[in-house]
Amino acid sequence: MILCIAQIIPEELLQRIQTTLADTPFQDGRETAGWHARTVKHNRQAEGRHPAVGALREEVTGHLQRHALFQMAVRPRRMKPLMFSRYEPGMSYGNHVDDAIMGSPSGAMRTDISFTLFLGDPDSYDGGELLIETTGGEQTFKLPAGSLVLYPSSTLHRVEPVTRGERLAAVGWAQSLVRDPQQREVLFDLDSTRRRLFEESGKTATFDTLSKSLANLLRMWADT
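RE: above sequence
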């Protein structure tokens, strides 16, 4: 499942991120790429040990963890710290698949879901589209600032070359409580339906039955 979520962070936080990153040191993005991805990765990433970057990571992650739609789609068990990336003219990230396991052996995490949070006005730069390969063909994303797209970490994807301006984004990964993507989609559809039903009719017998089915499927499928 690929899902776009509009305005997942507030405008005030978005502006603060843009201002902070403008004064933050960036390093060669290849330093955090796997051995094969280094050959096609050409961007810059905010220095992760910088105090301001750490504070922004925690604040953005907090908003994601409190966002109902993100929680429904991801059902995160663990999340990797966000990385803030910058693409200047001529920079791109060729076709790659994200590492299946991230982190040190003692803190290794399986990646089930990847996401990109766009931090710049799409009219402020040319190129820089995120392309994700699916069985139905390539899907292209260049979202408004503050909006996020999440997608299975198992997909091949790339960032097209930037030809003007600067593409600023945050990228992250999550290990889900539900490992199977088809099961996650079933749970997402059920949860979305019961929430709409509650908004329309309140707590009815049908709502209770859907809630029971959702809870029992999660009980069957959750990897805790």
